[in-house]
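user: Kindly work through both lines:
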Amino acid sequence: MDPQMHTDGDVSDRAIARGQGGCSRVSPSTIAAVCICGAVLLASLTPASAARLDDLEQMPIDTFAKLREVEKYQLQVAEKMYLDEKWAVAQAEYEKFLQLYERSVGAPYAQLMWSNCQRNQRKVNTAIRDGYQSVLDYWPDSREAIVASYMIGRSYQDIGEPAKAKKAYAQLIADHPNHVVAVKAKVNLVEIARVEEDNDRRVELWKDLTYNTKRDKENGRYCADAARDLAQHYLNKASFDDALKALETTWKDHELTYRVFEVSRGPIRNLLDQADKKAAGAQLADKVVAYITSQVPADQSDEQAKRRAREYWFWIAEVQAYARRDDQVIKTYEQMVDRFGADDELLDHMAGWFRGHDRRDEARRIYGKFKDQARGQGNIAYMYREERKYDDAIKIYQDLMTTDADRADNYQWAIAECYEDSGKLKEAIQTFRQTDRYPSNYMRMASCQRRLKQYNEALVLYNQVLSDNGTAPQAMLEIGYTYEQAGDKEKAIKGFQRVCKAFPTSGQASRAHAHLQSEYKITITLGGSKDDK
C-alpha cells in the first residue's frame, strides 16, 4: 500500500469502468457533434478522444438529450479538460455547472465527475466524503448514485482499506444485484480475497459469478473470466469434471474444446512438478487428451472439418508435451502423418519439437523432408548458426542463392552475418557491400570496420548514410562512439553534442546526453552545450 494514499491520495484507475450496464451512454463531446449546432462547439470536438471516457464516466443518452444547449456546452468544456487530464481545471468546470444549473438533470453527473477529478488528484477521502456520498444523498435514485456506490468501494480498495471496501461492495450488491457494477464489485472482491490469501472466499465468488449471476452483453466477460478461473482452480485439484462444468456455462463446441486445452496445460505441469501429485497430473493429462480426442470430427470429408481435426491433434501433442511424455508426443505426430500426410506445417511442428528438446539431428532430418526445400534448408542453416557452425550454414546459403534466386539478397545478407558472427570481418564487409540493403548494410560494414580498429573507414561509411533521415540519428551517435574508440576525446564530445543539436527529441540524443554526463561530466541541454556558442 502506498503510504501517501492515506492522506488524500488516489490511484488513477481509468480501466475500472469499461463494459458497464444500464441504458446506452455517450460522452457529451460525442453527442455534441450531432446535437449542438454552435460552430464553436463543433470546431472544438475531439471524437477520437471521446472514446477514452470509460462507460462509468459517460452520461446516458436520454439524460443528455434533456439538457439545454448551454448545459451541454458547459459539460463539453469540462470533459475536454478531463480528457486532457487537467483534473483541477476539469473539477472547476464541473463545479461551475453545479453552481449554474443545480436543478438540471445533469447535476448528478456533474457531481460524479467532480468526484472523479478529486480522486484523480489523489484526494480520495474528499472524493468519497464530499463527492460520491453527495451523489447518494441528493440523487439516491439516479444512475449516478449506483456508480458512486461502486466508486466508494473502489476508492477504499485503492487506498488500502479493504474492510471499508468490502462493506461498500456488499451494500452495493445487496441494493443492485443485477447491475453490472455489482458484478464488477464481485470481481474486485475476488482481488481483495487474493491479497488476503482467502482462497475459500475467492472460490465462493467465482462460483457466484459463474453459476448465479445473470449474464448479458455488458457483464458477460466478467462471468466468463470467473468461469475460467474457477475451472483452473478445479484443474489444479485434478478435478476435470468440475472444471468442464464451469467452462460449459460460457462456451460450447469448438470454443469449449479450446478452453479445455488452454486452461489445462498449466495445472498439468503444476501437478507433475509436485512429487505427491504426479499421479494426479498424469490422470488429468489423460482426461484432457481423451476429451479433445472425443471432439475430433468423425466426418472429415470437407476441408473445414479436416482443418479442425488437425488443430485438435496439434493440441493433443501439446498436452502430451506439457505432461512430459516425449514418446507420446512423437507418437501423436506420427499418427498425424498417417492421417493427414506429411505436409510442411506438420513437419514444422515436429521439427520444432525436436529442436526445442535438443534433438537437433532429428530436427534437421525432418526439415530435409519439406516440400518447400528452400524453407527447410533455411531452417537447417539457421540451426547451424545457433550451433556456431558457420561454415556449414554459409554452404547452405550459397546453394540457396542458386536454387532460390528470388530471395538471393536475403541469403547474401545471412552469409554476411555468418562471417560477422564468426569474426571474419573482412569477408563480412565485402559481403554486406554486395547486398541491396542501403543504408543498413553501410551501418553493419561500419561496425565491422570498428571491430577491425579501422576507424577512419568506419567514419566514412557513417557519414555516407547521414542523408537518410531514418538512419541519420543513429549514424551520428555512432560517429561519436567511433571517435571515442579511436581515442579522440575532443571529436567524440563534439560528435555527441552534434546529435543533441541535430535531433534533440530523439532517443539517440537522450543517450548522447547521458553519455556526455557520465563519461565526460558535461551537462548540456538536448539543444546543445551551454558553452557551445
Summary: Confidence is low (pLDDT under 50) at residues 1-26, 29-51, 527-533. The radius of gyration is 32 Å. The chain has three domains: 1-197, 212-341, 438-533.
